[in-house]
Amino acid sequence: MPHEVKLPAVKLWGGDFYNEGVTGEILFDKLKEECGVFGVFGHPEASHLCYYGLHALQHRGQESGGICTTDGSQFHYHRGMGLVKEVFDNDKLASLKGSIAIAHVRYSTAGESKLANAQPLVFKYREGDLAVATNGNIVNAPEIRKDLERQGSIFQTSSDTEVVAHLIARSKHDDIVEAAREALVKLNGAYAFLFMTNGKLIAARDPHGLRPFVLGKLGDAYVFASETCAFDAVGAEYVRDIEPGELLILDGSGLKEDRFTEKTKRAVCAMEYIYFSRPDSDIDAVNVHSARKRMGRRLAIESFVDADIVTGVPDSSISAAIGYAEQTGIPYELGLIKNRYTGRTFIQPSQELREQGVKMKLSAVRGVVEGKRVVMIDDSIVRGTTSLRIVNLLREAGAKEVHVRISSPPFKNPCFYGIDTPSRKELIGAQKTIEEIRKAINADSLHFLSKEGLVESIGHLHGETQGGHCTACFDNMYPTQVPDEETAACGCD
Ligand code: SF4
């Protein structure tokens, strides 16, 4: 007789939702943002604050959104596919009662875009209700999941978050804080976690602080967010960044600052500064727009070229382009315009439609670039296909020369920490020399920012001697153990 293991009950909630269905983004050769989390403790309008907070974090995920609140005795929640403004309306928000809430916007890799994975995930386990929202990726989640399945656990989603919920449910500790602590030390990866019960809100940041996570105050209430721009949206005051390995607990007795591990080494994702985060956010006390401007200035020092105008690929490269223009004295011009109203369309990923997708999103301004030698600043090159199209847009609009300057080093290695990146085989930075890339994107010249230039532009976070950043996608120096690329799947959970 096989030994029978008695399992604690863990059950995914059902619940109402609408707006189901997968919408497709216009395909664009850019890295995909991960997810965003927002939390409130002690505010009577918690669900409305979450709505505005999520709205400010929409750039971090556009596939689904969700809010879960508690009135102290039961949960109220709503999740849906689509943008925050499509998922929620006044009636939905009014039905989310209570002064404690956690909320989430999600981006997922293709094929995983389904409502079951939308967050917050809400569970019933032996100690009551539990809601979980996270931004990041648990590198060892597949192993933990297999282990749990061998022991009898049944999973209802493909989300790493459910793995963590099972770890909590199986903990020998009844206390949620101790159970969360026990689960967190088993994880390897990048995460900003929010856990909620009917009386507690718990926040945890991974031991490397890979994903950003901040604490704020709004009157007597506490708020949490992936980025500080969400605090500005709700009028909250930034208090501080949550430290790597830190565990913050809020309940009726106030805020308790604790840690789940002392083994920490700061390695904040450099791509948050280069591309992902909003320019008005501060990450680990460094403003994103200012860091990008310094990247542009440094790029100009490292790779000056005589030209008539500097232009940035909107939106994420505009700050670096301003920096490049300031440093060189070459005027900054709006040579490229982004069409903000393309919306979300159902298109097939054929080559022809990809081309059209870029034209729908970006236009070159003929009156600005015609007959000019143009320096085009972009934040990164992934496969090279988008860069080629943008260079060609500028040429078609009459640019005499197009000099491409990239405000980050060549992107050579995949990310395992919640950023959806193609495999090394598809990364042009891993496959070609800089001269080969220049030819492939049809540029007159091409330069990338050096890694030293990048680190100095961001600055040494909290005085860390080695900078305190993760730069693995440029230098292959991963801050944690990573799996074999061929078997790994990484998207934001
Ligand atoms: S590998 Fe790159 S994208 Fe991933 S966390 Fe590190 S710096 Fe960020």
UniProtKB/TrEMBL annotation:
Keywords noted in UniProt: 4Fe-4S, Glutamine amidotransferase, Glycosyltransferase, Iron, Iron-sulfur, Magnesium, Metal-binding, Purine biosynthesis, Transferase
Single Gene Ontology BP annotation: 'de novo' IMP biosynthetic process
Key word ATP-binding present: no
Top EC class, one word: transferase
Catalytic activity: 5-phospho-beta-D-ribosylamine + L-glutamate + diphosphate = 5-phospho-alpha-D-ribose 1-diphosphate + L-glutamine + H2O
Active site: residue positions: 35 (nucleophile)
Binding site for Mg(2+): 316, 378-379
Glutamine amidotransferase type-2 domain segment(s): 35-253
Free-text comment on the cofactor: Binds 1 [4Fe-4S] cluster per subunit.
Pathways involved: Purine metabolism; IMP biosynthesis via de novo pathway; N(1)-(5-phospho-D-ribosyl)glycinamide from 5-phospho-alpha-D-ribose 1-diphosphate: step 1/2
Cofactors that this protein relies on: [4Fe-4S] cluster; Mg(2+)
Single GO MF descriptor: 4 iron, 4 sulfur cluster binding
InterPro entries in the record: GATase_2_dom (IPR017932), Ntn_hydrolases_N (IPR029055), PRTase-like (IPR029057), PRTase_dom (IPR000836), PurF (IPR005854), PurF_N (IPR035584)
Binding site for [4Fe-4S] cluster: 269, 415, 470, 473
Gene3D superfamilies cross-referenced by the UniProt entry: 3.40.50.2020, Glutamine Phosphoribosylpyrophosphate, subunit 1, domain 1 (3.60.20.10)
Function, in words: Catalyzes the formation of phosphoribosylamine from phosphoribosylpyrophosphate (PRPP) and glutamine.
Family: In the C-terminal section; belongs to the purine/pyrimidine phosphoribosyltransferase family.
PANTHER family assigned: AMIDOPHOSPHORIBOSYLTRANSFERASE
Protein name: Amidophosphoribosyltransferase
Species, as recorded: Paenibacillus ginsengarvi
Lineage: Bacteria, Bacillati, Bacillota, Bacilli, Bacillales
